[in-house]
Amino acid sequence: MEEPRDFLSGLIVGGLIGAAFGLLFAPEPGDRTRERLRRQSEEWGSRAREQADRVAERVRDTAGSVAEQVRERADEFATKARTSADDVIKRGRDTFDEKTEHLRRAFEDGRDSARGRSRERRSPEGSEG
């Protein structure tokens, strides 16, 4: 991408230098040559300013485009992060609920088992007496 730009820059600079030498060595009186050089330099200055304005505009457009892409990617990342966090929280809650339910059942089974054993122990004693 740099090679065409370098070639174009070289072509423009070479043309400007060639034109300047052509004017300097032209068979005209000094006043006319100086006037031509002045007009030509004003024209080249104007062209250079126009080119600089075009380049600046392209840079602004490109920078704006890049900034927009960065914003979009940041929004996408934030959305994915939120979604992932929500998924992790949901899985954590589900696991907590499952473990709580498992522990509750184990407690109830243990309690019921302890009650049943104490009844079994009491029953034979009550029938003997």
UniProtKB/TrEMBL annotation:
Highest rank taxon of the organism: Bacteria
Keyword Membrane: yes
Region (Disordered): 28-72, 100-129
Transmembrane feature ranges: 6-26
Any one Pfam family match given in the protein's UniProt record, by short name: YtxH
Assigned keywords, A-Z: Membrane, Transmembrane, Transmembrane helix
Basic and acidic residues compositional bias, start-end: 29-61
PANTHER family, per database record: GENERAL STRESS PROTEIN, SLL0268 PROTEIN
Protein name per Swiss-Prot or TrEMBL: YtxH domain-containing protein
Organism in which the protein naturally occurs: Candidatus Segetimicrobium genomatis
